[in-house]
User: What shape does this take?
Amino acid sequence: MTFSIRPTAVRLLVAALILHVLLIQPNHPGAFTWQALRLFALELPVILLLLIAARGRFATALRVVLSVSLTVIAVLKSADFAMFTAFARGFNPVADLVLIDAGLRLLTGAIGVLPAILAALGAIAATALIGWAVWWATGVWAAVPRPRWAAGTAGLGAAVFAMLAVAEIGLALGRWSLPFTPPGAAFTARVGYERALLARQTVIDLRAFRIAAREDPYADRAGLLNRIDRDVLVVFVESYGRTSLDTPFYADLHRQTLRRSEAELRELGYAMASGVLSAPTRGGQSWLSHATFANGLWVNDQTRYGAMLASGRETLFHIAARSGFRTATVMPQITLDWPESDVMGFDTVLAAKDLGYEGAAFNWVTMPDQFTFAALDRLVRAPAGDAPIFAQLALGSSHAPWTPVPELVEWERVGDGRIFNEMAATGDPPDVVWRDRERVREQYRKAIDYALSTVFSYAALHAEDPPLMIVLGDHQAADFIALDDRADVPIHIIGPPDLIAQVAGWGWQDGLIPEKDASALPMDRMRDVLIETFSKPAALPSPLSERAK
Assistant: This one.
């Protein structure tokens, strides 16, 4: 008795089902529904008929191509799913590969080293399993017995369905209209096609960006920013987005904090103006916003970030250093080597290990914002020097996972940070909080309120010799948290009345709350706007309005 390896009806059905599930796999959280299972994948009959038609080496080559292609696209869809969840955009195979390391470190901070390692190994195993499953499924259909004349018929049928798939892809992309409605969708083929186009366009954009990065009207100009006679602090508030102004769940608390702080700062002699910026990212990648603000270039992915670093373009901090300021950056969330900082224009770079924090970490957050400000005073602003400071701070307390949230203490009690130890041990850990989206939103709401309260408390602390503070969000939180899909962030400029009076031409709202329907200025405009506003006309190359034409 011999054992037959010819496919049975059950094996054929299981193999087809495996291919069907891969072809209809969603790449967006909003499409992850039971309804997706009802989608008819137009690629499926193309694949099955080609496998029936093929024989010999051609069949083997076809199976290799299908196994590799479907596995790669399945991984791309999974990456899309993660990117849409975190950053409200799809995965760019050219620009986003470097985010894998950052994602693993974030995962490690959220769930621990061992679970993160297991998750990474699980992802690798799942990828291998997908490849094996496609190889097995295609082998089952390639082994279907058929007479010689059936190969041509199967090939013709595959061509018909392939043309139908191409027609549906063009319809979905808006390239043409059809006199009929296709009976399904070639979703997987479209994802692969779109990612190939995206990769090609990214390379083209990169070339153009490198050219634009070298065209700077302020290069080597002396005397810029010479209307500022004091320290300047550019303060990025992590995950502070427009939702804090417009979404009732957040705005009810955050607007109250802004109104209260505005009244307190006015009594202390401060003036304020506020507007809205359009950020280059949502949900994360704060460094893209930092680069966009400082360089005056739209840096919305990692490829452009790398091109910006290599371009030699002067940042706002290069220009400040040439104009007589001592430049610095205080980055409490930087825990690894940061070689990029060497070309960003900072005289002093202070990462987490340089700030002297001896307290406990708040999970992923290395230290409370209040300690970051105290370290700024101690390490940057207090040391004697003839030149004023031009510094960037990137606050971290409103970074995910938003648990636990610190509380403000008296400034003189901050010390080495151990006063925060008890706070760092309170509340549920991230793996508990993140089981419930409502709890996550509540923690986010509290964390932003703490960050804003800390910023304005610091301003009040220095009211006798007020710095010029530019306070802005780096990006909106992920959509499912922010409940707002815009990429807008608030920006506030706080300082002595004579300096704030110079921004009257910006059209911003007086105080700390922008107008409800305020239009968003692209964040890459801020570098040039600040230089234009706070530089004497003789130092400027030409009016900003003329260069914008």
Observations:
- The chain is about 50% helix and 10% strand.
- Confidence is low (pLDDT under 50) at residues 1-5, 544-549.
- Strands lie at 232-237, 271-278, 326-331, 348-351, 389-394, 468-473, 488-495, 509-510, 521-522.
- The longest strand covers residues 271-278.
